[in-house]
């Protein structure tokens, strides 16, 4: 009987549930199957009017596990909000739940931060620093196992600036802009400052002694120059502007005189080097390296620093370029 039809059933607990009536010898089940779930089907012939069964059916049925991954979630927005960072993504059809991961700073490790059935999640942050966060999302089953989709391995990034960092950077920028330095040069200096003291007040107002060596201030002026720093910047532990002024004056002095000369510092050529950089993001990277070489680690120490050694300060300089 070429007009006969077929009824397809799926096992539902201990009984069979009708899926579809068809005159074809195959169907595609959509919308009701989920990754990792196991389904058992059977088929029975029925008359063309659907009233009379014309065959028996296999009571064991045929079992299969659905292992076709869902679409990889796509993040649509990552933004700083009150209390942290909001991550939003597009709905993935048939996804039961989503798991959100983050990479912090220069780490290559993805860390789980939360599961949700919504299409957004708030990453709560209580961090006094400047840091880059990268997010990605993956579909999971309602029980959390297994994963039901792949994930974007590059992720979506945002730079988080704490209020402390932002306020410091803006003050520093305004001061040195008035001294004639371009944005790139200022960001290069900020990249070094952040690398050394994270712009935390307890660090740039405090003296730290490690193994008999004293450090202090926004650049952790240390060892052979710390005593001169305290001498020439007596209000350093009370006033940030006085530290900005000290840095500016040592750059102007250009290593003229002796250690007894006010604002003497071993930074010959640093100001000229900073003022030679182009006022671009790449210029900020260049300025970070120049400031490290001429001011933080004067020659010949700088000559042995590898490009990897500049990675952090140059990356931070880029962050400040985006902020300012």
End-to-end Cα distance: 79 Å
In spatial order, strands of the major sheet run 2-1-3-4
Low-confidence stretches: 300-308
Mean pLDDT score:
88
Shape: rod-shaped
Instruction: Give the ordered list of helices and strands.
Output: EEEEEEEEEEEHHHEEEHHHHH
Structural class: alpha+beta
By DSSP, the count of extended strands is: 14
Structure description:
The protein has 324 residues and is an alpha+beta fold. Helices cover 29% and strands 27% of the residues. The chain contains 8 helices and 14 strands. The strands form 4 sheets. Strands 2-1-3-4 form a 4-stranded antiparallel beta sheet, with no helix packed on it. A 4-stranded antiparallel beta sheet has the order 8-7-10-11. β5 and β6 form a beta hairpin. α2 (183-197) packs across α8. The longest helix has 16 residues, at 163-178. The chain starts with a strand and ends with a helix. The model is unreliable at 300-308 (pLDDT under 50).
